[in-house]
Every structure is written in structure tokens, then in C-alpha cells.
């Protein structure tokens, strides 16, 4: 398996290199270079998907390893984090699922919960260890009768942010719809009332303030993904 994908890597890598030379793009030709880089990144997604082991767990840490204060990050400053009304909150479910009924926070809290102390790694060059607790996304998807053979699970947030992950990662045991941070409900800045915690991917693949979960076969992209960050971004 590893040999095949490595061979695949070199063959595809070489042919991509050849394409780059043959197309004769010069440094002025931004769109041609851009196209090649996008193709390479999507190909990189496929290799990462091939190598992803749905049973391999991300490292977990001890309570004394938890980073305090935990850093905040978003595409806006901390005081602009979107305030979602907890009582009115209804998580929307759409796409390739049998049951599109929305979920209140109580509905989510009645589901099985798991905890994890894991490391969050941001592409901007920092990492921190935190504790999150919530519903395994696999349990949630099972419950709404999601098409588990679909390619993507996507997320829409209260702040225009959006992201999506591959189905094997969505079904990974450490991928959770997190409701708690440490012992408390998720604070505003860390994604209240609910965020995706996925410790097998980079920080930007952990959307906060989630309003909608959907299952799809059409590539949903993401806020940073559509601006060039590699979509799979596995660790
Ligand atoms: N809704 C939303 N989710 C988001 C972001 C955002 O801007 N909006 N930023 C992402 C990035 S780049 C990082 S590193 C983490 C930061 O999460 P934290 O504030 O809990 O540390 O949230 C991710 N999820
Ligand atoms: Mo990030």
C-alpha cells in the first residue's frame, strides 16, 4: 500500500512537472501557474486521503499539559466573535441525510458525549493543548441517517466561516461536535455554542459557531481552503 502510493506520488509528481514545463508558463502568466498549483493541491488531497488511517488516534495529553490561556484565532478580532442565542439555537441538517430535523442544544446534550485533551495546530505558527467534550460526529451522522458513502461533510458558521472534511475523517472517533471547553460550555471566543473538534487536522479545519451540518458529494471547499490553503490539511 505504502509502496504503491509512493510510486503514484513520483509518477504523478513527474508528470505534473512535465506539464508545467510543456505549458511554457512564464512568471507573468499568473493564471496558468495558479491552475497548476490548484491541481497539485487537489492531488495532494487525494494522496492524504489514501494515507489517512481512520483508526489511528491523534496524541492525547494530561490535564496539566493544557495551555492556559488558550489562544483565540479567527479572521476578525476577539470582540467581533458572533453571539449566537443559546435558547433559540437550532442546528440545521441538510444534504444527503434521511432526517433533516433541526437540533437544539439540549437535543445535542442528550446524545453520548466524549472528552479529549488534544493539540490544536494553527497554520499561522502556533499550537496549544485544550480539552473539548461533545458528540462524536459519527454518532450524529448515524442518527440523522447520513449517506456514509458520500464524500464530504460540510459546516456553515454564524460568522460567514465555512469548511468541509472528508467522510473518513468525519467518522474518526476523535472528530466531535464539541459543546464544552474544559469543564464549561464552549465560551463565545472558542466557538459557542458548538464547534467541530478534529484533532487529525490543522486548526482552520475546526469551524466554530456552527449553524448547519451538511452531507454532500459536490466539493464544498471552505473559507481558507478557497483562498489556497490545502483542503485535506491532515496532520
Ligand atoms: N467560525 C470560525 N471558525 C474558525 C475560524 C474563524 O475565523 N471562524 N478560524 C479558524 C482558525 S484559523 C483557527 S486556528 C481556530 C482557532 O480556534 P480558537 O479560537 O478556539 O483557538 O478556529 C478556526 N475556526
Ligand atoms: Mo488557524
Q: What compounds sit in this structure?
A: the ligand Nc1nc2c(c(=O)[nH]1)N[C@H]1C(S)=C(S)[C@@H](COP(=O)(O)O)O[C@H]1N2, molybdenum atom
In terms of structural class, how would the helical and strand content be classed? alpha+beta
Q: What's the total number of strands?
A: 9
The CATH H-level superfamily of the largest domain is Oxidoreductase, molybdopterin-binding domain
Average pLDDT metric: 92
Overall shape: it is: globular
Number of DSSP helices? 5
The major sheet is characterized as: 5 strands, antiparallel
Task: Find the CATH topology of the largest domain.
Answer: Sulfite Oxidase, Chain A, domain 2
Helicity range of the residues?
Answer: 25-40%
DSSP strand (E) fraction?
15-25%
CATH-defined architecture of the largest domain: Alpha-Beta Complex
Runs in which pLDDT lies below 50 for 5 or more consecutive residues are 6-20
The first-to-last residue Cα distance is: 19 Å
Number of discrete domains: 2
| H and E order | HHEHEEHEEHEEEE
InterPro entries: OxRdtase_Mopterin-bd_dom, OxRdtase_Mopterin-bd_sf
Domain Oxidoreductase molybdopterin-binding: 81-224
Organism: Sinorhizobium numidicum
Pfam families: Oxidored_molyb
Description:
The chain is built from 5 helices and 9 strands, in the order ααβαββαββαββββ. It is an alpha+beta fold and 235 residues long. It folds into 2 domains: 2-51; 63-227, Sulfite Oxidase, Chain A, domain 2. Strands 2, 3, 6, 7 and 8 form a 5-stranded antiparallel beta sheet that branches. β6 (176-181) and β7 form a beta hairpin. The longest helix is centred in the N-terminal third of the chain and has 22 residues, at 30-51. It is globular, with a radius of gyration of 19 Å. The model is unreliable at 6-20 (pLDDT under 50). It binds ligand MTE and molybdenum atom. Residues 71-75, 122, 157, 159, 161, 189-191, 203-204, 206-209 line the site of ligand MTE.
